[in-house]
Design a protein that fits this description.
Length: 480
């Protein structure tokens, strides 16, 4: 596989520390609110990446944190504590908020066919781990205590900016966020490893530490959780592109200083889902959720299809019209798969050749739109339906659009519609139960000698681009 690596700004051959094994880490959600569909774009693309790596033969260990402490509004060390903000908003405790929105996140993931990572670790469950790492950083001179907090000293590093070349002045916290600069920091890029009670008197979650009662910074949680479950050598780190700075930059700084060797060579960043007005963000308070899409009548998998149609390294603009187009294409695809007849022999040679092509196309920097195109190509192959269905099933092991399950359900529904009619009249079509029902209604109108009604239904079908041919014992319809 070739994957773009944001740490080197190049597309590179994917390699792992232990051949055949991928240690993969994903920054999880901050559980102070529902995930918006932008967050879920990142998780969908990371899910496809994991499934692709497994399909390509790797043994994957995927770890994800749940941020339930330490994440401040600015992503740096200023602004409100996000979890406290959620708790205040809903008059609940921080832990109640965390549990509720963690469950809601995994429910959204289930609806979007996003697999649960092998390890899911709430940040509050690994405090000893962070204290151990911070203690070593203090002992080795990479961290210092000031004003009650412990800071990472970025001046100790030969190279701090990994992902891009920042203009130092742009990073001046006061200018960027409209909040005061932290005077305890020796240099403005230094970041908090441990907060003590000197900050946020109303902080609900606190633990004892060598530096006083307090709580960890956001960045240390991902380093600590990853080192605990992925080991000292991480192969692949994922997240949305906004995480690259400062979060991932700080993760690298503290992990490599702690370990004394390189930590993670490959970084996968998913670009943002935007609305025509700009970036979708939780903190703005108004955002689109999976539940809202469902309320508007969309299958959550139509949204997954929408995401797969575009490349993860391009910003994607969400509009209802764009989603409508994706939903229509998805429905049409399901109809075409439902029209295939299951059963029979698979042509193994055709299958192997096509599947290899699919892996190669997708393996070019996770080209998901080519993956979707491969499904359409499979439908057009000059081979039997059994081979087409087997291929589509294999592709869907990576794409996870429930293609075979949904097509089977459509077939079943169509069969039921026919059975609801008469035993001597069958409808054969492209697996759309609504059309089957209309064709059946036309037959019943004709049987009742209501020819005007029968013609009206035929015209209605024609207007929808459906051609009905009467055959012995029933009718066959197709889209023209
Ligand atoms: P958060 O819950 O804010 O910690 O974010 C969860 C994940 O969603 C992180 O990997 C973010 O980088 C990512 N993310 C945030 N906003 C967007 C967006 N508009 N589009 C895609 N990913 C996003
Ligand atoms: Zn993280």
């Amino acid at each position: 596989m070739y994957l773009y690596n944001s740490a080197t700004h190049k597309k590179e051959e994917f390699k792992t520390h232990t051949p055949g094994r991928v240690e993969m880490y994903t920054c999880g959600p901050t559980v102070y609110h529902f995930a918006h569909i932008g967050n879920l774009r990142s998780y969908i693309m990371e899910d496809v990446l994991e499934k692709y790596l497994r399909a390509a033969g790797f043994d994957v260990n995927r770890v994800m944190n749940i941020t339930d402490v330490g994440h401040l509004a600015s992503d740096a060390d200023t602004g409100e504590d996000k979890m406290l903000k959620g708790a205040k908003r809903e008059h609940k405790s921080v832990m109640e908020i965390a549990q509720f929105y963690t469950d809601a996140f995994f429910e959204d993931c289930r609806k979007l066919n996003i697999k649960r990572p092998d390890v899911v670790q709430p940040a509050t469950g690994c405090i000893d781990e962070y204290i151990r790492i911070i203690s070593k950083l203090v002992d080795t001179g990479y961290a210092y205590a000031a004003g009650g907090n412990v800071y990472f000293d970025t001046s100790k590093l030969a190279r701090y900016y990994i992902f891009n070349d920042h203009d130092e002045d742009d990073l001046a916290v006061g200018v960027r966020e409209g909040v005061e600069e932290d005077v305890n920091k020796r240099s403005k890029n230094d970041f908090v490893l441990w907060f003590t009670k000197s900050k946020f008197e109303d902080q609900a979650l606190k633990w004892d530490s060598p530096w006083g009662v307090g709580y960890p910074g956001w960045h240390i949680e991902c380093s600590g959780i990853s080192m605990k479950y992925n080991g000292e050598y991480l192969d692949l780190h994922c997240g949305g592109v906004d995480n690259a700075f400062p979060h991932h930059t700080n993760e690298i700084a503290q992990s490599e200083s702690y370990l004394g060797h390189p930590w993670c060579p490959q970084w996968f960043h998913v670009h943002h889902l935007n609305t025509p007005e700009g970036k979708m963000s939780k903190s703005k308070g108004e955002f689109l959720t999976v539940s809202l899409l469902e309320k508007e009548g969309y299958d959550p998998l139509a949204y997954r299809y929408f995401c797969l149609q575009s490349h993860y390294r391009k910003a994607l603009v969400f509009t209802w019209e764009n989603l409508d187009n994706a939903a229509a294409a998805y429905t049409k695809l399901l109809g075409r798969i439902a029209a295939l007849v299951p059963g029979g022999e698979v042509d193994q040679a055709v299958y192997d050749e096509q599947y290899e092509k699919f892996l190669q196309k997708m393996g070019n920097d996770l080209n998901t739109s080519m993956g979707v195109t491969a499904v359409f190509d499979a439908l057009k192959l000059k081979t039997g339906d059994a081979t087409k269905l087997a291929l589509i099933g294999a592709y869907d092991g990576v794409l996870s659009l429930s293609l075979l399950e949904k097509a089977a359900a459509l077939r079943e529904k169509a069969a039921q519609t026919v059975q609801a009619g008469t035993a001597d009249y069958s409808v054969t079509g492209e697996g759309d139960p609504a059309i089957d029902a209309l064709v059946l209604q036309r037959y019943e109108a004709k049987k009742a000698k209501n020819f005007a009604e029968a013609d009206r239904i035929r015209d209605d079908l024609k207007a929808q681009g459906i051609e009905v041919t009467d055959v012995k014992g029933g009718a066959v319809w197709k889209r023209i």
